[in-house]
Amino acid sequence: MTRQKRRTGRRHPLATVALLALGLVFTGGAYAALSSGTIAQAEVDPSSQQTIEEGKKLFQANCATCHGLSAQGTDEGPSLIGVGAAAVDFQVGTGRMPMQMQGPQAQQKPPQFTDEQVKQLAYYVASLGPGPDIPSDHLVNGGGDAANGAELFRINCAMCHNVAGAGGALTEGKFAPPLTDVSGVHIYEAMVTGPQNMPVFNDLNISPEDKRDVITYLKYVQDNRSPGGIELGSLGPVAEGLFIWIFGLGAIVAITVWITAKSN
Amino acid sequence: MTTAPSATAPQKRSFTSAASVYVNERTSIAGFVKELGRKAFPDHWSFLLGEVALFSFVVVLISGTFLTFFFQASMVEVHYDGSYVPLKGVEMSVAMASTLDISFDIRGGLFVRQMHHWAALLFVAAIGLHMLRIFFTGAFRKPRELNWVIGFTLFILAMAEGFTGYSLPDDLLSGNGLRIIDGMVKGIPLIGTWTSFLLFGGEFPGTQIVGRLYTLHILLLPALVVALVALHLVFVVVHKHTQYAGPGKSQQNAVGPPILPIYAAKAGGFFFIVFGVLALIASMFTINPIWNYGPYDPSPVSAGTQPDWYIGFADGALRLIPPGWEFVWLDRTWSFNILVPLIVIGIFIVTVLIYPFIEAWVTGDKREHHIADRPRNSPTRTAIGAAGVTFYAGLWAAASSDILATHFSLTMEGVIHALQAVVIIGPFVAYFIAKRVCIALQKKDREIVLHGYESGRIVKLPGGEFIEVHQPLDEYDRWRLVSQESYAPLMIRPNARGKITAGQHVRAALSRWFFEDRIAPVTKGELESGHDTHH
Lengths: 264, 535
Known about the structure:
The structure holds two protein chains of two kinds. Chain A is mainly α. Chain A has helices at about 1-5, 15-40, 50-60, 65, 85-95, 115-130, 135-140, 145-155, 160, 185-195, 210-225, 235-260, and strands at about 170, 175.
């Protein structure tokens, strides 16, 4: 009986497990709360002299080798005067800059700077000359008209990026990357600044509201799986043809072998 | 509880038996069933590939019938009002809107649509594999030449069925496909423009084409396919099925389980397996997501726009043509960038179509053949096949040049140039390698027949000599390896008037090309002496 009693309450065999779980939930929750707090605090004042000074230091340490000490450009890299904060936020925020190596186009990689540092760099470059600014949240949160965005996307973007944003090939090793996990801010910035081989879609060409609709469509595609099942990369008939030859016909041939196998 | 014999029913017959008697008394079908039921069908997995094609065609017919209840082949413009949000309010044709309704608003519609499309892809793929089996085993030889022609025509009809179906939803992808066809038609000198206007009822895209393609897709082409499939199967029954060489199998018989009951049961079960595999694929994998492509509009073209796989070789041929192959002459534009692929593909198709007659003429072989060749025993034919497959595969791969470039981090130009080499030089390389591999395999077979397998057992003779014991073949295996026909190049002979015609010279030259490198099959004498001198 004593044994039975000892195994209830805080001496229950699962008490340790419960305690551990509780501890983990608290730690995780606190971490999540704190880290979201830090993101919120990463709001950098664009006009403060301190931001620009910090940005300048970062620029001179990390970018000046190719872009020049005052971003005037060298043989290795273009001038950044007048490219605006949006261009820097896109290039550095997606990890394309600092560039790993010269090639047909800068490859995406994990970002090398914190969000705060990216913003400091962006506002430093923006202070050198007027250019497109980082878009405000209401333009990039995907709250527009998906149908209009889809139509604009098919007409303006699908040639290179594919109708489902799966990406596509360009000439001489260049390519249009997939848009399946690009954030709304970066899509917007890409449209206004035309990074790598992409053309610029300025506000006269596609209005900010239309850009918001394009982002809304891409968010829709990102958030909604294909109603037909597994997408096979959304690559179109090539993926479908490969699938039916390898898996469809492969399965069928395996079955024919099984059906005609002689019993031993 | 006892069963007292009844006066009214002296013989108690089962329902099945009574029913068959009833039917037979009115149709005399017993003789037919008996005859057909006793047909033997040789058992080999590769003999079932044609059935896969047939069964997927049945699935295509059944699912297609369902789709006709809901699809509307009209190009009248409407504003989409279905449940797919990113297309709401977008202007599109009724054809596109009804296909979207099938996909989103009709119960089971998307599943059946996907099954129809997947089954169509499998249909053409199975035909392709079936034809390769026929080609490489020489099963197209006398008396089956006409059936080869029928089968190949079915392949072409299946491609036409596929392409017309691909074009029906009037989405961006199908419109782009039609635009390429329109361009190809317009590239033909003199008649091109007129033909295009005739086809589309005016300037592309017009308002006619979907209706016209629909008639082709659900009436004319299926009727032709069904009729030719029936004829194809009648010929299979008339000719008997081919079989691989083996003890007890000869040119005069067909060895295998009879159609009734064994083979029919197996084939019936196999139909449901094929149906099941297609249903599984259709329920799990998206195909042709027209909601992504949106309605057709002549201005946009998506990256990764390709035809379905079976038209890929034609698309690839267009992509491989170097730039600048068109010029103005006599005040007309001559589009050799379109004419050359059309002509090359035309020659390729006609050559495949009439290949049985070419080979029959070259070999001068007028005998019937019911034993399927092993591909190695006809090295030149196998090598020709390998060259053809390489040529086709190069064109086919070229249709996905952009996908190859992005997914293997290559340049588009590099992919195109490499595939140009594959298409032009590749067939010769493939021909040479395949022929040498066949001859080497024949040599190995000959060695095995004469000396048996190496057993790895080393024996020391009393005199001190070491020998390896070879394990002789059993009779069954040997039969398979020795029963092949041997050919020799044709001699040039003068005809009745004592003249040697130019045709004779060509034929002798081709025959020499076909048969000059050959390994003679093991003769009975060699076999016996081989056994005698065996260590």
